[in-house]
Amino acid sequence: MGRYPDGPTPCLKDAACQVRITSMRDTGPIVIFSFWGAVIFSCGAFMLWKWNRSYQFPIKPILIQEKSSSGVYEDDTVSSDPEGVSKRTSQTEEVHVELEGDREFLITGFTWTYFGEFCYFLSCLVSLHWIALYVLILVDTYNKCEVGGIDNLCFFGNNVIFGTYELNSKVFFVVWWLSTFWFTAWVLNKGRVHNFFRVPCDLSRATVVYVWAKDQREVLSINVFFLVRVLQRVKNTLIPAETRGHFEIIDISSTSLGQRYFFLRGQRYLVNGEELQRAFLNIGTRYSDFFQVATGLTSKEAESRLEKVGFNEIPFKPETLMFIVVDELFSLFHVYQLVIYMLQFWNSYLFVASLMICIVLLSASVTIYSRRRSQLAIAKVTEYVTETLVLRDGEWTILPSRKLVPGDLVKIRSDWLLPCDLLIIKGFCVCNESALTGEAMPVQKYMASNNLERYRLEGHGSRHTLFSGTTVLQAGNQRQDDVLAIVTSTGMATSKGELLASILYPEKMLFKYDEELPIVVLMLLAYGIICFIISIFFQTHTGAQSYWVTKWIYCMAILNQIISPLLPVALEVGQLHAVERLKVRGIFCLNPKRIAIAGKIRVFCFDKTGTLTNEGLDFIGAQSVVRSNNFGPAFGPLKTPANGDDIEPSTLHGLATCHAVTKFGDRFVGNQVEVMMFSSVGWELVENANEAPCVRSVSGKELRIVKRNEFDHARTTMSVVVQDKEGLLQVYCKGSFEKIRELSAPHSLPTNYMHTARQHALDGCYVLGLGYRNLGSDCNLERVEKLSRDDLEKDLEFVALILFRNELKPDSRNAIETLKAGEVRPVMVTGDNAQCGHYIAKQCMMVAPDVRVLLGDIDTDGSVSWRPMSVEQEGYNTRPLSTEELLRDHTKGLEAGLQELAVTGRAFTVLRRSEAMERLLYFTRIYARFTPADKVLVANMHRDCGLIVGMCGDGGNDCGALRTAHAGIALSEAEASVVSPFTSQDKSVASVVELLREGRGALHTSFACYKFLITYGLMFSILKLCAYWYGIILCQMDYIFIDGVAVLSLGYAMTLSYPEDKLAKVRPTSSLLGPQNVASVVGVWVINLLYLIGALGFMVSHTDYVKWPAVYSHGASWWTLGDNWESTVIFFVMYFQFITSAFVFTFGSVFRKNVFKNWFLVGSYGGLLVFMSALLLLSHSGFTSLWHVASEQFNKMNSNSPVWIAYQAHGGSPSSAMPFKFRFQLWWLIMTNLVVIIVWQKIFAEGPVAKAFANRFPSQRQKFCI
User: pLDDT tens digits, residue range 471-519?
Assistant: First the structure.
């Protein structure tokens, strides 16, 4: 056996071989054609029948109008038409389903028929039959092929089925085009194909529902490339925005009792006849309603409710690995790759095509792994079943938690992870809510009062609610204490379920590169079509003996090389490594795509207490009021109980009682402010079952807390009613000093009340006011229970200011300075007062020392006025400024950063109504006295302005804002909190810096991989065109080293670069078509092209060069077309260009560490550089012949090459091998090529020239002071 294959003998020339198919009129083709006809006839008949049926019995979508809180109630009846129940509209009316406030769905029922299922079965057979035909063609192509070395790897067979190469190629051509159209249509309608063979029907007979939803997505860039706008206009013209959406086909299931239902976005919907109902049980709206049903359920009641709401579980199951694999591989891009590589499989590239398929599978496996890992992480949070002690049929029964239903009476135990939301009706608990809120401090939960007050989960109702996913640390004071609670919601209706919904069904965010990627693909496709046309001309020009199908396949190969199979992974792979690095630093991520988004953040919002400052506050003392008949109330000195100071009795009693502290073992738990306050007085907390708690001093003074109103964010107060031993009842109320001022009688307030309180706040104190009221001897406990909170918290006597010190975390200042140095604007959004926020902002350098801060607050007339915050600054202008005056006279100072703004929550509300807040947003640094809802509004306002915004908080009242921001990071001990996409266990704001570092590095890495693959495609197209011009094809080992070694090893190594230690003043571009990326790719491509032209010219001018005689070659026998100088020059020049492109695109710029710190890349690049240099310069040997290096004399007497043999037979003379001198000169030319590429990338594309260009033509974006 020689170097090249010389067999097998074609079947037509072998007497012992019989050709199976010689004509399209043979039995085999007739069977195939008959099958096609049967499929076309059957599907066509079904379409006509389905159309006629739909015409006679039209079915329109169902009308459902729901609010997020609506559902199925216990008293629902068909005739009452309650909210959440659907009705069939008139047959001519199309309607919408309105869910979750702003979501719209169209729902239609479908059912199966025997005819439709038969047609669907035929369609599946068609897909399988294409694969069978490919196998048949490949068997014919490779039957009895030879395997004898790298140049004889099963290149052709004996054509035992079709007899000739020509007939085989024609069959392949037809099958390839038909199967390509078939699989493309199938993939574009993936998920809808089966439903196409179902018929629409009433819901009462439906087996599935077809749900259509309008696309809702956020575009994370307002400055888009003009071609994107053109594409958007074309898209809007062809497919109007209101008709663009996504669909879901959902099976209708049935319970054991026949209740039909389906899940939509995690919510359970009941199908009752032609009606839809959202499965939800409303146990009550007032606290008294829950106490009325606190007798437990019967088994029959529980079973009935279970039929409606379903099992108590999050209806999320990770997709099976097989489903993920099929779903990922059966995508449009991978089907495109498959049909392209089928060309190579047929065209004698069996082993190279197998290698390329492996690369495709490898790239797909990265996506599959990421998707699978994310789902398992979510499943870890959602999956939970525990045993529960439930009162059923009057007896306490142990049941699995998945069988709980709303209304069940449950006995709470200590050290228990809660499976549902519950309302405590007896006893109290201490809970750890870090898994749900991110806040690690234990919190007290106590029984609700049996009154007519409305139960609201938000606000003070949360103090009585045990949330699903949180842990009960302690139930009651003693083991024998019974703590009872009513199940209020289960499954996705729980607070945990609602949080998980934002993870399971996230808002789709379109990055700038997501919008530009179709433009890039279209541009590459247009370039590929041009190359396709040119390649046809080049192949004709050489005079090679090629069949038309062979020429067509070579042209199609260019399209395959231009669009790399790794391209979809290139924009994601950097994020996967960033996830692992963040995990090592204690930062966990549930949504890897948010990492790249974090790389573009321009504004980062911070909570103050527990985030910028320490979690605990140090109690400084109380400054009580001293009353004098002559001078009125005045502030006395600051006193601290721990120092033995003699504190006024009313102040001491307020400190001892006005709190919600409880005991967990030997430690106090509750709000840390209250824990520190109570601990300082040295009193004892006595808690007994079925008794109101009391506090007792060392001297025996005892006060019993008979009623407590928990802290309310909206009111900013909390209060208690206490009773002394004589039975006298008193009210103590504490809260923000502004609110206590409103609630206190004017005569009890010192004249300098606000000045003193603000001065303490400006000095960094957390300031609360304390008020007191004696209810009188005629008031009793029964009357107290009837008094509303408003009645209790009024006409107070001001008692004292309570002061705490809120110290900055050691690393907060450095983190804020790093962010500002990285051109990220930090802002503070806090529930604390503006003065304390101002102090912390100054301490952490969020506000520069010499910057004047103006505070916007509400005046008595309801308007917003602006005043200097610090006492020193008040001398500038004692008269407050209106908002109009601020915008008119101080805009320049605000834009220059000489002045900044702080705004209170009340002023923010007024400014939003007048739209003035939009103009002041970029100048506002401190948002004070903000409720959780206000914090969400701040994040949304920044998003609406087109800014990428982050949020950092410790959970609790930050949850909404953490989920609203593009990248929220919760400082929590939980490994995977559902509060936000990111969770930091070290509870330091330095985690924000780490996230931004990794985000910028990951984004830059993704774009480096993208540029490498684009350059790879562009250069490979040039390689193909050059080969077609000369009539050559590189040998198989060359392709293996290009695709299998260079792309895989260097492509992977590029992703291993670490982010830079410091944040640069710029962010990486997110535009595929931005000038930096275009200059980088086009510049490298043009330089490489010029050097390739120079190398080929140098080759042609050499005296020993003999042009490859392509006229004597046969295009189908490509393995014989690499024995020439042209192949050697083109391969070595371009291979060095390939690997150097990967090297230069990994330059760190300012976002990643220096390329030389990426040891794997440097080692791979250096190793390939040395190896390929040696391969080019070494003398001919068996080793170099594997690559067909021209150091071998191909055109010699008795040559192995059939082309050179034919050349000599037609009068050509032998020629010498490529001399060492030429190869050495060629190597030096290649080295200068590499140096020029490096200089271009380092100086022009990413260096000083690029920076000067960016400064000369800055991007159009919002400008504000950092």
Answer: 898 888 766 678 999 999 999 888 888 877 777 777 777 777 888 888 8
Enter the tokens of residue 989: 């704001």
Query: Which token pair is 474?
Result: 């302690």
Q: How many helices (H) and strands (E) does the chain have?
A: 41, 46
What is the three-class DSSP state of 983? strand
Q: Which residue has the higher pLDDT, 899 or 1260?
A: 899
CA distance 501 to 506: 7
Please report, to the nearest 10 degrees, the dihedral formed by the alpha carbons of residues 1048, 1050, 1055, 1060 taken in order: 180
Mean pLDDT of 1172-1195: 95
Yes or no: say if 853 and 838 are a contact pair by the CB < 8 Å rule: yes
Amino acid 418 reads: L
Which H or E run includes 1127? Answer: helix 1125-1144
Token digits of residue 751: 């004249």
Q: What is the rounded CA–CA span in Å between residue 562 and residue 993?
A: 38
DSSP, collapsed to helix, strand or coil, labels residue 993 as helix
The residues with which 474 forms a beta bridge, in sequence order, are: 430
The crossing angle, in degrees rounded to 10, of helices 165-188 and 114-142 is 140
The per-residue pLDDT for range 918-957, each reduced to its tens digit, is 999 999 999 998 888 889 899 999 988 888 999 998 766 6
**Element containing residue 246 per DSSP (H, E):** strand 245-251
Q: What is the mean pLDDT of the chain?
A: 86
**Structural contact between residues 287 and 455, judged by C-beta atoms closer than 8 angstroms:** yes
Longest dimension (CA), the chain: 132
Distance between CA 822 and CA 604 in Å, rounded? 12
3 state DSSP class of 390: strand
Q: Is 1034 exposed, middle or buried, given 0-12, 13-18 or 19+ CB atoms closer than 10 A?
A: buried
CB 425 within 8 A of CB 447: yes
Q: Which band of pLDDT confidence, cut at 50, 70 and 90, is reported for residue 94? A: very low
Q: 1169, 1064, 1069, 1188: which is closest to 1121 by C-alpha?
A: 1188
Q: For residues 174 and 136, is the Cβ–Cβ distance under 8 A? A: no
* Cα→Cα distances 452→448, 530, 884, Å: 11, 77, 46
Q: What is the DSSP letter of 263?
A: E
Long-range contacts of 716-720 (CB under 8 A, 24+ apart): 716/929, 717/743, 717/793, 718/658, 718/659, 718/660, 719/658, 719/789, 719/792, 719/793, 720/657, 720/658, 720/659
The rounded distance, in Å, linking the Cα atoms of 350 and 154 is 7
Amino acid code (one letter) for 440: A
Q: Is 253 helix (H, G, I), strand (E, B) or coil?
A: strand
Tokens of 308: 């409606």
Contacts of 211 (CB under 8 A, 6+ apart): 105, 106, 107, 247, 248, 249, 250, 264
Scanning 546-666, the segments in alpha helix (DSSP H) are: 548-562, 567-570, 573-584, 593-598, 649-657
**How far is residue 313's CA from residue 419's CA, in Å, rounded to a whole number?**
8
Q: Which residues contact 130 (CB under 8 A, 6 or more apart)?
A: 175, 178, 179, 182, 183
* DSSP state, residue 195: H
What is the pLDDT, as a whole number, of residue 2?
57
Query: Which pLDDT belongs to residue 247?
Result: 86
pLDDT of residue 506: 72
d(CA 1083, CA 428): 70
Beta-carbon contacts of residue 1036 (< 8 Å; ≥ 6 apart): 150, 151, 153, 349, 351, 352, 1119
